Amino acid sequence: MSTEIVNRVANSKLVTFDLEDYYPPGERVLFDIKDWLLEGLVLREGVFREKAAEHDWSRYKDAYVALTCTTDAIIPAWAYMLLATYLQPYAKKTVSGNLDDLETILYTEIIRDMDVSALVDKPVIVKGCSHKPVPKNAYLLLIEKLQPVVKSLLYGEACSSVPLYKKSKK
């Protein structure tokens, strides 16, 4: 009994889409302002401005920076805006929030600007496992972008995928 083994996955028209391929390279920095606050809770404008002016912002060159405060302090919007003015000449991107917020914003911009015309009416599988911190929201944003144009959407690996969407025949 000698039947040839055929790799149906390799011969299919299935397109694999890996969000990890779009991960922007660069250092991620979580900048916590709590140490610039009185007892970690009170923002004193004069002291805060002084610390910002004395800080070496050049060390964030080409980094992605998430500005946050990990205490229960109430931080006015101007404080983050002030820090952003110092980071602007150096950082690739500055956001208010944690590192997951940073990744979500980066992927939002990437997916928004993505050209998906090559995927029109094609079966697409979105690769699930990644070694880079691809945020969960990126997968949802990708669905919004792909569903209107693709023939079908699956998640996982070609050998064991989960069907998510199939365009209805009209």
From TrEMBL:
Taxon lineage: Bacteria, Pseudomonadati, Bacteroidota, Flavobacteriia, Flavobacteriales
Any Pfam family the entry gives: DUF2480
Source organism of the structure: Autumnicola lenta
InterPro entries the record matches: DUF2480
Name of the protein: DUF2480 family protein
Highest taxon, organism lineage: Bacteria
